[in-house]
Design goal:
By secondary structure, the protein is mostly helical. It has a domain of about 110 residues. The chain has seven helices and two strands. A two-stranded parallel sheet has the order 1-2. It is elongated and about 150 Å long. Pfam families: CFAP91. Belongs to the CFAP91 family. This is Cilia- and flagella-associated protein 91.
Length: about 260
């Protein structure tokens, strides 16, 4: 009637399947003893390889039953020949097992080599992609520099073409003021003009706005109508009662007058 709860789960305390003790009679050799070398996790539960081993053990026991007895001297040569044939079969079977293991190892090695080649190809592709990107950036920078030099040389050629004979030309003030891209409106820094210098001279400096005394003087000069505003309440267009309520008749008259207007 009392239930208990352990500190561990059943799965954590689970052991290998129980194998009971057994006693073998001297007159019998059970076939089940051929599986005594198999344990849980090493052959158990039985698979295809274990079933083939059991079948080979049964075939070997059947073959041992067909061997001639040792007390018959005339059958010794036959017994030796049968044993040699069986030994050759066992060696051939072992060679097949070794070949199977070698094939499995070869497949695993092929998979590992294939995986390594894929990783190496991926790294090579990334490296080539990075080199291609760098090469493209270098080409773009070079093209940009060539275009800049080309524009510079074209401007120089245009400037030389304007004064082919090398004559000194007077300044045309009307043309300078008519062209908004001339030096009059947009002077260049390279000819010695810096438009950002002395920018504070364009700021508005007013005595009445920057000083407290100026503000007081400005406020005193203003008329009273500016500082002291008087607002008169508008008179209602409709007749109201003493309490300020507009009658319905007056409201209707106002609406009719608005519609008529």
């Amino acid at each position: 009637t009392v239930g208990t709860q352990t500190d561990y789960r059943d799965g954590e305390a689970q052991t290998d399947p129980y194998s009971p003790e057994y006693v073998v009679l001297s007159t019998s050799i059970p076939e089940l003893l051929t599986l005594a070398t198999l344990t849980w996790g090493r052959g158990l539960p039985a698979g295809l390889a274990e079933v083939e081993m059991i079948e080979r053990a049964r075939a070997k026991r059947a073959w041992e039953a067909t061997l001639p007895p040792l007390d018959n001297a005339s059958q010794i040569a036959k017994r030796r020949k049968m044993m040699d044939d069986m030994e050759k079969k066992e060696w051939a079977f072992r060679e097949q097992e070794i070949e199977k293991l070698q094939e499995l190892r070869l497949e695993v090695l092929k998979k590992l080599l294939r995986r390594r080649n894929e990783k190496q190809n991926e790294l090579d592709f990334k490296r080539l992609d990075a080199q291609w990107q760098n090469h493209q950036k270098a080409i773009e920078e070079k093209v940009k520099k060539l275009r800049h030099n080309c524009a510079l040389m074209v401007r120089k050629l245009i400037a030389k073409r304007k004064n082919v004979g090398g004559k000194l030309a007077r300044r045309d003030i009307i043309e300078d003021y008519a062209d908004f891209a001339s030096q009059t409106y947009a002077p260049l820094t390279r000819i010695g003009y810096f438009p950002d210098n002395h920018a504070e001279r364009y700021a508005v400096k007013n005595y009445y706005l920057n000083t407290f005394a100026g503000l007081c003087q400005l406020e005193a000069s203003l008329p009273d109508s500016v500082t002291q505003v008087q607002i008169q309440a508008p008179k209602p267009k409709c007749s109201t009662t003493k309490t300020g309520f507009i009658k319905r008749s007056a409201r209707l008259e106002a609406e009719l007058a608005q519609v008529h207007q």
